C-alpha cells in the first residue's frame, strides 16, 4: 500500500494545536503540565514538565518564539530536543540571558512538539503530531504579583475610536471582542494581549452614544477565562 500524502490541519485549543496527518489512527503528543510558563527574574530560570502521551517514543522539540512587538532574545531553552519514552516526562528549563534588569513584564511564546519515530517502510499509518503553543511571561524582580492586571487598563472613547492604555508594568490578556455599555455594542481589538506601555485602538462603529463603560473578557495569568469585567471609560469630545 502506498503512503498517503500529508495534509495539515490547524486547531485552536488553549494554544495552537497543529496536526500533521499522513494516513490509520495514532495520536502523538507532548502534554505540558501547565498552560503558561512564568520566569521570575530573581530565580534566573523557570521549568516545566512535558509528558509524552503517545504509545511510542518521540523527540520533544521545544522552541522559544518572539512576538512581533518584542523581538529581543531574553532567554534560552534546554534541552531544545530530547527523546522521551512513552508515558515518561521531560523537564524543560528556560534560562534567563538578560543583560539588564527587567522594568516590566515581557511576553514570549514557547512551543512543544512531539516528533514520532519513523514507522516501518510500507506500513499505512496516520501519525498526528500535536504542537502546543503556550505564553511565556518574564516577571521583573520586585514587581508585585497582580492577579487582576486588567483592572489597571484605562479606556477612552473619542468619536468612534475606542482606545485602551496599559500604563502598568503587566502584560494583560483578554478576548478580542469587547462590549460598550449599556448598549452592548461590540468592538474588536487588534489582538488578545496588550503589553506594558502600549496603546491599542479600534473602531467602535458609527452613531455611538451614551457610553458608560466597557465590558471585557479577561484571561487570568494561567490563561483561563475570568469573570467578565466592566471597566469605566472616559468619553472625550470628538
Could you estimate the helical fraction of the residues in percent? under 10%
Mind telling me the C-alpha Rg?
Answer: 22 Å
The shape, in one word, is: elongated
Describe the main β-sheet briefly: 9 strands, mixed
Fill in the CATH topology of the largest domain.
Answer: Immunoglobulin-like
Q: Enumerate the spans where pLDDT stays under 50 for 5 or more consecutive residues.
A: 1-27
**Tally of extended strands?**
21
**Mean pLDDT across all amino acids:** 87
Count of spatially separate domains: 2
Structure notes:
- The protein is mainly β.
- The chain has two domains: about 5-140, Immunoglobulins (Immunoglobulin-like), CATH 2.60.40; about 150-235, Immunoglobulins (Immunoglobulin-like, Sandwich), CATH 2.60.40.10.
- About 0% of the residues lie in helices and about 50% in strands.
- The protein contains no helices and 21 strands.
- It has strands at about 5-10, 15-20, 25-30, 35-40, 45-50, 60-65, 75-80, 80-85, 90-95, 105-115, 125-140, 155-160, 160-165, 170-175, 175-180, 185-190, 195, 200-205, 215, 230, 235.
- Strands 3, 4, 5, 6, 7, 8, 9, 10 and 11 form a nine-stranded mixed beta sheet that branches. The protein has a four-stranded mixed beta sheet with strand order 18-13-12-21, with no helix packed on it.
- It is elongated, with a radius of gyration of 22 Å.
- The chain starts with 6 loop residues before the first strand and ends with a strand.
- The relative contact order is 0.17.
